[in-house]
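Bit of a strange request maybe. I'm writing a small parser for structure token strings and I need a real example to test against, not something I typed by hand. Could someone generate the tokens for this chain?
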Amino acid sequence: MATEQEWRADAASEPGPWLELTPADIPVRLFDRAGSGASTRSSDSAGCPSGSAKGPFAAARGTASLTPLAGVRVVSLTRVIAGPTATKFLAALGADVLRIDPPALPELLGQHLDTDSGVRCVSWDLANPARAEDLADALDAADVLLTGYRPGSLTDLGLAAASIRDRFPHLVHVELSAWEPSGPRGGQRGFDSIVQAATGIAHHYGARDEHGRWRPGALPVQALDHTAGYGMAAAACALLATGTAGHARVSLERTARALLDARTLRTAQDAHLSPATLTAPTDHGMLEYVPSPVRVDGARPPAQAPQCEHDGVRGPAAPARTA
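Reply from user aminoacidic:
Good idea to test on real output. This should exercise your parser:
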């Protein structure tokens, strides 16, 4: 664990803005009215490979809806909290979201029911050539791709950022990592609590227990994950608003820096917030959740049960993992 001063001294350099946006000169297909971005693959209007009964997306273009992101198609290769927070938000705004997970890594059940609200989830082994082709079809039909795995871990699947730009230049690609790629931990794994410890946030929230021993603390509710997730959604919307494809980068480390720079951190005693929650019935019991921070037509989007398929077979949500 480090103090903020130790972390800043160790960082390779001061990063740029919290959300690093790089627009391209290629229109997002959704807004390419002249048709110059038409697909070169054999797919129907729902992004479905020819001859297949059902495509990767729920609806064809032009589905009647007044939601802000109606017609926008999103593919998510993200897990746990940050990326799914982004896709939950985009789905609440009307986007058609497809989340793809490896079959061997089911999400925690409660987390899945919350963060995958309104999202279609599939379990695909992308090392399988047939599933890799399905992914290519989905990306060809999509407007936005979110990735959230350790830098370099998707390279063997042809999903490094440079490869995505070459193969799918029409996409808005938002990339999440734990650490700044140019920093000393750039290629390492990481998650919210580790980043809080490394950047001095855990030290900031530290306090002495009843025995007088100092203990590290943490921001509540995995705040770096949630903040970064909303940042990913904001980055996708910002690039879509330009009408062009492009790339955006978000990291938990840069998110921590933004919060530290803003000096909005509370004391440990003030950090335990109690947000208003709602409940919704699910096949697994009643779900208590924090509602969406936005309103559409004056109302908050309700929680929606995820649509789940496991390697192409529709079924119940993945079971909760136990330690």
